[in-house]
Amino acid sequence: MLIENATLADGRVRDVRVDGDRIADIATDLSPSANEAVVDATDKLLLPGAIDAHVHFRQPGYGHKETWETGSKSAAAGGVTTVVDQPNTSPPTVSGDAFDEKADFAQQSIIDWGINGGVTAEWDPDSLFAKPLFALGEVFLADSTGNMGIEADLFADAVARAAEEDVVVTVHAEDATLFDESAKETDDYDAWSAYRAAEAEAAAVERALEVGGDSAAQIHIAHTSTPEGADLAHDAGASCEVTPHHLFLSREDYDDLGTKGRMNPPLRSEERRAGMFERLVDGTIDIVATDHAPHTAEEKDASIWDAPSGVPGVETMLPLLLEAAREDRLSYERVRDVTAANVAEVFDLPQKGHVKAGYDADLTLVDPEASREIRGDELHSNCGWTPFEGRRGVFPELTMVRGDVVYERDADGTDSFGDADGQNVRG
Ligand SMILES: NC(=O)N[C@@H](CC(=O)O)C(=O)O
Ligand SMILES: [Zn+2]
Ligand SMILES: [Zn+2]
Q1: Ligand 1 neighbourhood includes 66 CB (under 6 angstroms)
Q2: pTM value?
Q3: Which of 143, 217, 306, 373 could bridge across to 302 with cysteines, CB 3.0–4.6 Å?
Q4: Which residues are catalytic?
């Protein structure tokens, strides 16, 4: 296939030839050979497919919230070509057998994938590390969905073992001893943010970095929600994520969101949100990952203390960032780096994350001016809603994984999807 006249993130206009799984050639003057399919990409932006290092696709156990089929379609329609699934499924992914059970479900994925191993008191590290794991994590320092919070000693043992195995450890960093119990006196939505206080994140990030330093493990802090947490990670030489919801939503949005704004770590003040966006732009924060954590609207329809934590996001990450780039709030190169190149570097994916000859042809094509309103009922997740309802996004029109078109939106807005040919990126 020849993609003609594509604009790359740095503004260069190039022809891109895809041959089999790989990008074969990038130049200014390629002409189609006989029978070669041609995509006219004039005035379109060609980006490396996004690598979302943090999703919860819910199978095994909770297919009513999301399945690998619906989750991967939602990802593809949002320009995401690789996802990494987290361990709080049923059974939790804490043994070799549980890994295999999840990998069977992942055969339904239309995009590439990785599976993280989790840590609980019942985990079986020997059988788990024998599998082609993506990383260890998210390791829960406090309870979240699935109640997989662990004790300090077990965390230290798990980090030491991961260092021996040369596997990255991703950490859900909140310290439950610093949660503000007095916040429980009201049923206001905002009480969730008051309860899971910002200080609880910084304290847990510090502990994770200390434990990581002791055993020379590679620590990656998942979903940092505070400038304090991100700065601690960055200054210690660790990598960290931010989610789209911590970049684009704050405590001021609870009035609109209700319990749909409940997640862990919680939404923060408008000032902290702006601080996270600044750190995304200036390079303090390495990557954006969605923490795509779907629950049904019915499940979310409860009091702030009873509703499950988590919001979907895999389909809207790149569209929201591209909208911010369209408004000149960050550069297209930065969008490319935080969604693809940096993720490939942090997690050692040498074939992915770049529009360059020799790399996997994981690509997404967008009209950078085609901004539209985000509507939950037009998205492809099983959960059917989005916390970004009514905001604007720039959605892809074509997504490709290793040279196969997995998503295409035609001129009248009809979506089509590819087959379930996704592969484990750890082989
Ligand atoms: N973020 C959330 O609020 N929920 C996640 C779990 C997690 O990432 O902590 C979920 O799986 O529902
Ligand atoms: Zn988490
Ligand atoms: Zn998560």
Answers
A1: no
A2: 0.98
A3: 306
A4: 291
